Amino acid sequence: xxxRDDETTTVRAAGCxxxxxAPASAPASPLPPLPPPPSPGLELCLVHRPKYDDWSHPxxxxxxxxxxxxxxxxxxxxxxGYAAEPGVELPTARYLANGRPKEVRYWAAAAGxxxxxxxxxxxxxxxxxxxxxxxxxxRSRDRDLVDALLATLPLGGPRASRSS
Length: 164
Prior knowledge:
Elements: H1 3-8, E1 11-21, E2 42-49, E3 54-56, E4 59-61, H2 68-80, E5 82-97, E6 100-114, E7 124-128, H3 130-136, H4 140-152
Parallel strand pairs: 1-6
Antiparallel strand pairs: 1-2, 1-4, 2-3, 2-7, 5-6
Helix pairs in contact: 3-4
């Protein structure tokens, strides 16, 4: 491959919009109840990347020959410490990164067991309600993925759609 080919080759990456059911509300208190959150009872996991000082969904470059879904699940585990159960595929993001075309395939994914451990790549994660996640995300293309995820979930609550 010539240096020119390397400059124009699309960078392939994959990730997930990782979600979990929102924790049960706190026990009743003598204070008046707070209004219900404007979300369907779930939280989204956002990662903070110190190299870019940004908040995004967990994602990363695919290894040579790696299946995109397998790569997305690997990246979630590496960046968040959580296993993920994939659901439906979400819209693919396409943009220029360092002058090269980049394509990131995303899936909805329910969080499984795990625990976060900070690293050089991701130093913090946050679990936020969808509206708060949308506000915290650095890039608008990542905000669009929140809406895409919410559109895939049944109105009755957070249940990942199973893909065959």
